Recover the amino acids of this structure.
């Protein structure tokens, strides 16, 4: 492992102690082998003047909710040293009291809550303290001879700390270990917390950070000599099976989950190791990870549903072995080892699933190394249970925003570069769906980025590109729950006797046949969807046709019939199929102000009159259609199928 310290870069963070603390914290955070997603913590002790000009000793500790990789000055909580030291001398202290007293002792009440390791940081008699959950330290210490290995590698440079629960108990344990000692005189530079992580300390920021790098490197070198390099293998892809697995896991979780398949040669290699089902499910690298990943992953055998069920049964048994009055969390796995396929990670959002993926891939590599270097022996499940059901940890997870209607769902929307299609994609995304938009417009990737979606340039009348886009969606997110089949054109108005055959053919191809082709390819995946729903975008023209629009009206009438047949075919699979019939939506690309004026004049109306020429005299906007379609894909319509919903302000020919 290399030190990332750079003098020029360091200077940009300021020469004061807190500035240096921010810089080296970020250096730790930059290396995923050291900390991942909010893991680890750091501190610096300073003497500063308070509001009244009095000197006060303060320990700036990483605030909760901040990530070392991106931390700023404001990410550190200033806690009075005097209070922290006093707390360390108490015989016992509840978690609630500790959190409360740390807050009381902050010199800035608006700073984030201090890390639960604040007391521990305070009692270490060095200016800078760095703590990580380095993979190599896990691989080294999650072993029956972990302590002996640490002594062999580091000698007397470190204090070895047996595993105890983080928080007050850990601080107290270390206070006892260092009581009456002069760590400087003894040449102590760090602490190895067995099955947890590494601390290094020094009065100099660079020195403390580089000690960390040096000690992790020593562990890496030791393991490289004893362990085997990562296994590698090629994946055999089965997207339908992935969608089935996502469905099984989501049903256990109680909510739709995004599934991310890692099919890297390393992930597939790991999943294919003969005894991985046993050693790969023994436990996490560090207790902290279990909050995101649970204690162990699922192992997926030939029967996907049975494998997920077995995980749930094992989880319930684990809960019952250790629970003392707690309520069981959901029994769904957060990641799964899948022979031949790789590692699958699950989450409420793509962001959550990616965090789990980072941890699970890191876990796989480290577990393999640990097992091959002398046996992987992580924390016993009793200790993991204490962390998983620890109130302070549960509080971190509860903090998130309320769940949105389509959270965890994957939506495929066609023809969404502008107008009604874009409004639909936007409404679905606003309600939490992960949207993939297909359009022939070459700007669709940029357009979908605006709503956090992915856009793919596709000509929907061609077979292979449509199949590729569907496959991409499942590979990326695990399945498809909502399909909005919207793509359509409005050809030139021509009477039947003069209409070009090509206009007719093209309209039928795009407005009807492309939808049928999409259904043909997407339905197998939608059958594995969660609360699955298909929505077509029709037109008022179906029930109220106009002269000169035969191709458009006929295609929309046939599309309506396609919807009705699909509703009949898919009802046994609990898939809802409905159609929305918009009319007179003028805030689209087709309608320039000039075109609007021309059309209004033809009816002898002002533009405003023309825009609201419906029974209710209201203007229909793209967003009205977007919101309606989003509602139709949601729980309000959970028992509605085969319905045709006009969004037209009332039309006497339709009513
Ligand atoms: Zn830790």
């Amino acid at each position: 492992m290399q030190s990332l310290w750079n003098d020029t870069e360091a200077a940009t963070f300021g020469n004061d102690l807190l500035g240096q603390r921010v810089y080296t914290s970020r250096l730790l955070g930059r290396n995923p082998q050291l900390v991942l997603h909010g893991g680890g913590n750091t501190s610096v002790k300073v003497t500063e003047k308070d509001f009244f000009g009095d000197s006060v000793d303060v320990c700036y500790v990483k605030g909760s909710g901040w990530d070392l990789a991106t931390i700023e000055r404001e990410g550190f909580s200033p806690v009075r040293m005097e209070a922290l030291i006093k707390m360390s001398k108490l015989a016992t202290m509840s978690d609630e009291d500790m959190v409360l007293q740390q807050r009381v002792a902050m010199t800035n009440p608006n700073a984030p809550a201090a890390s639960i390791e604040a007391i521990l940081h305070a009692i270490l008699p060095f200016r800078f303290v760095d703590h990580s959950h380095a993979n190599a330290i896990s691989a080294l210490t999650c072993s029956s001879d972990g302590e002996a290995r640490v002594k062999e590698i580091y000698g007397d440079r470190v204090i070895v700390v047996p595993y105890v629960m983080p928080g007050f108990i850990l601080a107290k344990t270390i206070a006892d270990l260092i009581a009456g000692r002069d760590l400087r005189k003894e040449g102590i530079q760090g602490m190895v917390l067995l099955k947890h992580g590494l601390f290094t300390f020094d009065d100099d920021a660079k020195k403390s950070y580089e000690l960390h790098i040096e000690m992790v490197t020593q562990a890496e070198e030791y393991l490289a000599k004893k362990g085997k390099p990562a296994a590698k293998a090629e994946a055999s892809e089965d997207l339908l099976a992935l969608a089935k697995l996502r469905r099984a896991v989501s049903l256990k979780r109680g909510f739709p989950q995004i599934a991310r398949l890692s099919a890297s040669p390393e992930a597939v290699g790991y999943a294919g190791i003969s005894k991985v089902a046993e050693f790969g499910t023994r436990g996490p690298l560090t207790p902290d990870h279990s909050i995101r990943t649970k204690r162990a992953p699922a192992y997926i055998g030939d029967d996907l549903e049975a494998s997920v069920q077995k995980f749930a049964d094992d989880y319930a048994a684990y809960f019952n072995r250790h629970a003392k009055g707690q309520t069981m969390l959901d029994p769904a796995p957060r990641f799964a080892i899948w022979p031949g396929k790789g590692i699958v990670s699950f989450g409420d959002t793509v962001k959550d699933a990616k965090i789990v993926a980072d941890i699970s891939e890191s876990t796989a590599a480290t577990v393999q190394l640990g097992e091959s270097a002398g046996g992987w022996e992580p924390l016993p499940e009793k200790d993991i249970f204490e962390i998983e059901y620890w109130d302070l940890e549960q509080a971190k997870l509860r903090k998130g925003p309320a769940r949105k209607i389509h959270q965890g769902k994957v939506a495929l929307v066609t023809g969404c570069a502008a107008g009604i299609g874009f409004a639909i994609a936007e409404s679905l995304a606003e309600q939490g769906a992960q949207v993939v938009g297909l359009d022939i417009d070459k700007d669709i990737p940029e357009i979908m980025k605006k709503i956090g979606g992915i856009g793919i340039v596709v000509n929907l009348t061609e077979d292979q590109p449509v199949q590729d886009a569907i496959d991409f969606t499942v590979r990326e997110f695990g399945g498809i729950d909502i399909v909005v089949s919207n793509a359509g054109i409005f050809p030139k108005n021509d009477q039947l006797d003069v209409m070009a055959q090509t206009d007719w053919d093209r309209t039928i191809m795009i407005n009807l046949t492309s939808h049928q082709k999409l259904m043909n390819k997407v339905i197998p995946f939608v059958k594995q969807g969660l609360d699955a729903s298909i929505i077509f975008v029709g037109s008022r023209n179906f029930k109220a046709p106009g002269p000169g629009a035969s191709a458009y009206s006929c295609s929309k009438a046939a599309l309506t019939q396609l919807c009705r047949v699909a509703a009949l075919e898919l009802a046994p699979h609990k898939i809802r199929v409905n159609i929305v019939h918009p009319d007179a939506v003028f805030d689209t690309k087709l309608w320039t102000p000039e075109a609007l004026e021309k059309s209004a004049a033809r009816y002898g109306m002002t533009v405003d009159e023309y825009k609201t020429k419906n029974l209710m005299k209201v203007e229909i906007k793209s967003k009205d259609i977007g919101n309606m379609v989003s509602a139709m894909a949601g729980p309000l319509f959970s028992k509605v199928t085969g319905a045709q919903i006009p969004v037209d302000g009332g039309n006497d020919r339709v009513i």
